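Annotated sample (chain length 89).
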Amino acid sequence: MGNKAIYIYTRSGCEESQSLKKYLSRDQIPYHEIDISRSHDLESELLGLTGTTITPAIIVDQRSIFGKKKRAVFSGYVTNKSNIKRVIQ
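Output written by the structure step:
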Protein backbone atom coordinates (compact mmCIF):
# COMPACT_ATOMS: atom_id res chain seq x y z
CA MET A 1 0.00 0.00 0.00
CA GLY A 2 2.99 2.31 0.30
CA ASN A 3 2.70 3.50 -3.30
CA LYS A 4 -1.07 4.15 -3.08
CA ALA A 5 -3.09 6.93 -1.51
CA ILE A 6 -6.81 6.33 -1.13
CA TYR A 7 -9.24 9.22 -0.76
CA ILE A 8 -12.92 8.60 -0.18
CA TYR A 9 -15.53 11.30 -0.57
CA THR A 10 -18.46 10.56 1.72
CA ARG A 11 -21.68 12.17 2.86
CA SER A 12 -23.19 11.73 6.31
CA GLY A 13 -26.17 9.41 6.16
CA CYS A 14 -24.95 7.65 3.00
CA GLU A 15 -25.23 3.88 3.55
CA GLU A 16 -22.78 3.05 0.74
CA SER A 17 -20.21 5.39 2.32
CA GLN A 18 -20.59 3.54 5.62
CA SER A 19 -20.23 0.16 3.87
CA LEU A 20 -17.06 1.31 2.10
CA LYS A 21 -15.52 2.59 5.34
CA LYS A 22 -16.32 -0.72 7.08
CA TYR A 23 -14.70 -2.67 4.24
CA LEU A 24 -11.54 -0.54 4.28
CA SER A 25 -11.28 -0.62 8.08
CA ARG A 26 -11.93 -4.37 8.28
CA ASP A 27 -9.10 -5.06 5.85
CA GLN A 28 -6.90 -2.40 7.53
CA ILE A 29 -6.59 -0.38 4.33
CA PRO A 30 -5.60 3.20 5.17
CA TYR A 31 -7.64 5.98 3.61
CA HIS A 32 -8.31 9.70 3.85
CA GLU A 33 -11.97 10.60 4.29
CA ILE A 34 -13.44 13.80 2.89
CA ASP A 35 -16.99 14.39 4.15
CA ILE A 36 -18.64 16.62 1.56
CA SER A 37 -21.68 17.30 3.73
CA ARG A 38 -19.53 19.77 5.69
CA SER A 39 -18.83 22.12 2.79
CA HIS A 40 -20.24 23.19 -0.55
CA ASP A 41 -16.64 23.70 -1.73
CA LEU A 42 -15.88 20.02 -1.08
CA GLU A 43 -18.97 19.01 -3.04
CA SER A 44 -17.73 21.19 -5.92
CA GLU A 45 -14.30 19.55 -5.64
CA LEU A 46 -15.94 16.12 -5.95
CA LEU A 47 -17.94 17.27 -8.96
CA GLY A 48 -14.73 18.45 -10.62
CA LEU A 49 -12.96 15.14 -9.98
CA THR A 50 -15.73 12.74 -10.94
CA GLY A 51 -18.30 14.72 -12.90
CA THR A 52 -20.94 13.86 -10.29
CA THR A 53 -21.68 14.32 -6.60
CA ILE A 54 -22.49 10.64 -6.02
CA THR A 55 -21.00 9.29 -2.80
CA PRO A 56 -19.01 7.47 -1.97
CA ALA A 57 -16.42 8.40 -4.52
CA ILE A 58 -13.09 6.62 -4.37
CA ILE A 59 -9.91 8.16 -5.73
CA VAL A 60 -6.82 5.95 -5.77
CA ASP A 61 -3.55 7.67 -6.60
CA GLN A 62 -0.65 5.30 -7.16
CA ARG A 63 2.88 5.43 -8.43
CA SER A 64 4.42 2.77 -10.61
CA ILE A 65 7.92 1.48 -10.01
CA PHE A 66 9.09 4.09 -12.51
CA GLY A 67 7.46 6.92 -10.54
CA LYS A 68 4.64 7.48 -13.02
CA LYS A 69 1.45 8.60 -11.30
CA LYS A 70 -1.84 6.87 -12.14
CA ARG A 71 -5.31 7.70 -10.81
CA ALA A 72 -8.36 5.46 -10.57
CA VAL A 73 -11.72 7.12 -9.91
CA PHE A 74 -14.94 5.34 -8.91
CA SER A 75 -18.37 6.78 -8.11
CA GLY A 76 -20.40 4.50 -5.88
CA TYR A 77 -19.25 1.49 -3.90
CA VAL A 78 -21.76 -1.29 -4.58
CA THR A 79 -21.64 -1.02 -8.39
CA ASN A 80 -17.82 -0.81 -8.43
CA LYS A 81 -16.98 -3.18 -5.57
CA SER A 82 -14.91 -5.70 -7.54
CA ASN A 83 -12.97 -3.03 -9.45
CA ILE A 84 -12.23 -1.11 -6.26
CA LYS A 85 -10.93 -4.25 -4.55
CA ARG A 86 -8.72 -5.02 -7.55
CA VAL A 87 -7.19 -1.53 -7.60
CA ILE A 88 -6.56 -1.10 -3.87
CA GLN A 89 -5.12 -4.52 -3.11
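Annotation: The longest helix spans residues 15-26.
Annotation: Residues 4 and 62 are 4 Å apart (CA to CA).
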